Amino acid sequence: MNRLRIGFIGCGGIASAHAGRLAKFNDVELVAFSDIVLDKAKAFANRFKGKAYSDWHEMLDKEKLDVVFICLPPFAHKDEVMVVAEKGIHMYIEKPIALDMRLASDMVRAVEKSGVKSQVGYQLRFAAGVEKAKRLIEEGAVGTIGLVTGRYWCRFIRKDWWIDKSKSGGQIVEQSTHLYDIIRWLCGDVERVYAEMDRLFYKDVPGMTIEDVSCVVLRFKSGAVGAVTATIGAVPNFWWLKWTVIGRDATLESEEPNSLKVYHSAEKPLRIEEYREIGRDPMVLAERDLIDAIINDRPTRTPIAEGAKTLELTLAAVKAAESGKAITLSS
Which of 57, 138, 139, 143 sits between 20 and 30 A of 168, alpha carbons compared? Predict the structure, then answer.
């Protein structure tokens, strides 16, 4: 079997996480790496026995690639998705896919016009607890969903582009977007948002323009309501990504992505089930899903259109907080 040839645009930390996992697949080959800092690309090329480029355009022109992993920070996205799509190359793009909906919409149109496969890096859709919740909701075991809550709490700060809102979009757009994507995938699209956010913990950090606390109220198209809180000022060494979905017939509670507790509230006596899968790597499964989709010509779980929808939700939350008004989403 011919192995799929993979190239990288961007050779930072997230690219290393992907490349290390992909190198263990027997049906792919890592062949080319590009980064504006050539030494970074060379380090990848030496590690994985590929070629290094400082210009991704040159890489695409010189290499015959089946898949490109786009691992750029949010502010660095320009036309790479459109060019990759026009060349008929499949892609994995890290979240968020852009910082504005105009560019995101251009990306979606290009990918859908070309017919290539795409996968956005919302790998928590492949976590065990999230998958189980999705199945229960689709099977009707949860019933009508009325209330959704979520918490993305950590103590985290990077003193680089990440604290510059114009480059990262802020915690909601760049980091807790994973939680918003889980909730949207499970409970459907959001119609309207209202939000409050501020910087209260890190006022003394020079150049910091992102929020460090936020609370967002959601109104889903289904009629359900929700609330998501996020902060980068919580407990050191604890990373809380927790959510609850309350339905008429069952309540779903996840304390971490690979676990789920189900309260069958419509049953007498009350039945409680717990699911947990230790050692599951959602990132590997997201990568595998893209590769299998290419080989078997089927859809991916998180195509770029889904990445655009989650981006629209998080951008709307930021706009609501900035304007002090409820924002209605367009899609």
Answer: 57
Domain that holds residue 263: 124-280+311-328
- The per-residue pLDDT string of the chain (331 residues; one tens digit each, 9 = 90 and over) reads 589 999 999 999 999 999 999 999 999 999 999 999 999 999 999 999 999 999 999 999 999 999 999 999 999 999 999 999 999 999 999 999 999 999 999 999 999 999 999 999 999 999 999 999 999 999 999 999 999 999 999 999 999 999 999 999 999 999 999 999 999 999 999 999 999 999 999 999 999 999 999 999 999 999 999 999 999 999 999 999 999 999 999 999 999 999 999 999 999 999 999 999 999 999 999 999 999 999 999 999 999 999 999 999 999 999 999 999 999 998 6
The Cβ of residue 24 has, within 10 Å, a number of other Cβ atoms equal to: 8
Residues 213 and 316 placed together within one structural domain of the fold? yes
Q: Which of 13, 9, 7, 53 has the alpha carbon at shortest distance from 30?
A: 7
Are 22 and 143 found together in one domain?
A: no
Say whether both 166 and 21 belong to one domain: no
Instruction: Mark whether 73 and 112 lie in a shared domain.
Output: yes
* CATH number of the domain where residue 247 is located: 3.30.360.10
Task: Give the burial class of 267: count Cβ atoms within 10 A of its Cβ; 0-12 exposed, 13-18 middle, 19 or more buried.
Answer: exposed
Number of domains in the chain: 2
Same-domain pairing of 23 and 143 = no
In our burial notation (b when 16+ CB lie closer than 10 A, e otherwise), range 5-20 reads bbbbbbbeebbbebbe
Question: What are the φ and ψ backbone dihedral angles of 296, each rounded to 5 degrees?
Answer: -100, 5
Of 87, 82, 85, the C-alpha closest to 98 is 82
